[in-house]
Structure formats: C-alpha cells, structure tokens
Design a protein that fits this description.
123 residues; 11 strands
C-alpha cells in the first residue's frame, strides 16, 4: 500500500508563489511515477507535472513550464511542486498521485491518490 499526503496549499495574491509538498510512504516497488494533478472548481482533473526514474526525469505541462517546477527529494520521500507567478486560473485542488507505468499527465491508471491541498489565487 502507498500513502500520499499533500501540503503547502493556501491563499495567495496573483503573482505570488507557493511550494506544494507530497510526502510519499509505503511500498516503493508498486510505483515509479509520481505526478501532480489539479482540479479547478467545476472542471475535470488535469496533469500538471510528473517525476519518474528516481527523479532523473520530469515533465511539466507545456502551458506551465515557465512557472512550475517539480522535484523529488529521495531522502525525504517528498515530491515538490514549486509554483511561481500564480494566476487566478491556477485556483484548484491539487493532488499528487502514483502509478507504475503509463502516460505521465493522464489521470488514467493512477492507483494511489492523496486527498489534495487547496490553492486559491486572488486577483
């Protein structure tokens, strides 16, 4: 079993920054990919950024590459999502999820999910 616990969300003004954390515990043999997703109010869930291969590979959604960065601290078993220049449209519940293989930014086949952390950006 795998547990993911998100933290670091909050309310910020447009242009501000936040760093989200995803603490991972459990059987590391059951997953190789950890990805951040977000779900804005009334909309579907979309992939934001993923990390795999022990942190050596990362992928950030093209529209967010200039503002968001994903990193993995293996010693702390924590995945970070650094978000800068935040916009009101970044307001969403942010989740981290883990799976063994597959398309990184697609929510399909992700087995393990955290409960999420809320990010609210005001204009």
């Amino acid at each position: 079993q795998v547990q993911l616990v998100e933290s670091g969300g909050g309310s910020v003004e447009a242009g501000g920054s936040l760093r989200l954390s995803c603490q991972v515990s459990g059987d590391r043999n059951t997953f190789h990919i950890i990805t951040w997703f977000r779900q804005p109010p009334g909309k579907g869930r979309e992939g934001v950024a993923g990390v795999w291969n022990g942190g050596r590979n990362t992928l950030v959604r093209e529209s967010m590459k200039d503002r968001f960065t994903i990193t993995l601290d293996n010693a702390k078993s924590t995945v970070y999502l650094q978000m800068t220049s935040l916009k009101p449209e970044d307001t969403a519940m942010y989740y981290c999820a883990a799976k063994r293989t597959g398309t990184i930014l697609s929510p399909a086949d992700y087995i393990f999910w955290g409960r999420g952390t809320q990010v609210t950006v005001s204009s």
